[in-house]
Each structure stands twice: as C-alpha cells, then as structure tokens.
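Consider the tokenized backbone below.
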C-alpha cells in the first residue's frame, strides 16, 4: 500500500475495496511463493518431460506475473477482471483456510486504516524491502512505521 499511495488513499475512503486490494497484493507479493509436487508417473507439460519421482516446483509468485494471463503484470491494478491469481494454490490441495485468511487480512487492514489513517513508513526504502530469507514464505522482515 505504501508503494501505491493513490490506491491506498482510495482504500481509506472506501473500505469495501479491501478484497480487490488484497487479491492484487496477493497476485504480486503472495505469501507462498512456490509449492512442490512429486510426479507419480511420467508426464509431459509444455514439452518438458517430468519423470516419475521427480520433484517439481510450481512458482505461484511467477504465475501471478505471467504476462500471458495478466495484462501489464507489474502494474498494481485493483480493477482487474478475468483470471484470478493462484496465491492460495488450486485444485485438490488448495488452501483449506483461504476464506478464513481473507477475512483475517481484511480485518487487520480495516483496523489499521481506521486507527492509523496517517500511517507511513519511517526511514525505510520501499524500493529495497528486506524480504524474509525463506524462499517459500514471502514476507517483509521488519518495516518501521510512523503514525
Ligand atoms: C495468506 C495466508 C495464506 C496463504 C497465502 C496460503 C496459501 C496456501 C497454498 C498456496 C496452499 C497450497 C499448498 C499446496 O498445494 O502444496 C495452502 C494449503 C493449505 N493451507 Fe493455506 N494459506 C494461508 C493461510 C492458511 C491458514 C491461516 C491456514 C490454517 C488455519 C491454512 C491451512 C492450509 C492447509 C491445511 C493447506 C493444505 C490443504 C491440502 O493439502 O489439501 N492456510 N495454503
């Protein structure tokens, strides 16, 4: 939100935009960057043979920036229509708690905005966030703020 002040301002005026903001943030900076699978049998995907027993990494974060699916993928655009991000996975093992996580994030955002409407980062370079070292779980280690 700090990197997209116009959207943040819109959101402060209209909290009903939270779900759209949440989905666009998840598309671009989803908290699970990749998931793994182990092939039960040989299978070819996009001309690539994956052999039985191979481990395969699916980069959900990269899928969120797939230019064949999302027009102008680097843009934070809360008015996207069409295909959804897959930040909660998909198919049989899709996140069992996606609905819960959405509500939780929405509530946190709402509370923060309502209590600290003038919140800003403090002595923090938004272009160089300190990401968690774990490659699967994506998050910011620390971000001082003022309000
Ligand atoms: C923003 C928060 C969350 C994100 C981005 C997220 C993302 C995901 C993703 C991508 C998967 C698929 C894993 C795979 O296919 O290998 C998954 C599965 C799962 N998630 Fe979440 N999750 C979140 C929150 C939660 C919470 C709060 C819980 C529990 C309270 C939870 C419980 C689970 C469980 C049990 C599965 C496995 C489902 C299965 O294998 O059938 N998740 N999640």
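A designed sequence for it:
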């Amino acid at each position: 939100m700090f990197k997209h002040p116009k959207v943040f301002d819109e959101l402060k005026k209209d909290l009903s935009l939270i779900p759209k903001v949440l989905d666009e943030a998840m598309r671009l900076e989803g908290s699970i960057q990749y998931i793994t699978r182990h092939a039960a049998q040989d299978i070819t995907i996009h001309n690539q043979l994956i052999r039985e027993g191979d481990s395969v990494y699916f980069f959900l974060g990269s899928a969120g920036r797939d230019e064949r699916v999302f027009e102008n993928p680097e843009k934070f655009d809360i008015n996207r229509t069409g295909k959804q991000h897959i930040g909660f996975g998909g198919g049989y093992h899709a996140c069992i708690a996606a609905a819960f996580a959405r509500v939780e994030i929405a509530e946190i955002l709402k509370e923060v905005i309502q209590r600290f409407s003038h919140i800003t980062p403090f002595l923090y370079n938004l272009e160089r966030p300190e990401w968690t070292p774990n490659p699967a779980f994506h998050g910011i280690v620390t971000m001082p703020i003022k309000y």
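The pocket of protoporphyrin IX containing FE is lined by residues 30-32, 35, 60, 87-89, 93, 95-97, 100-101 (CB under 6 Å).
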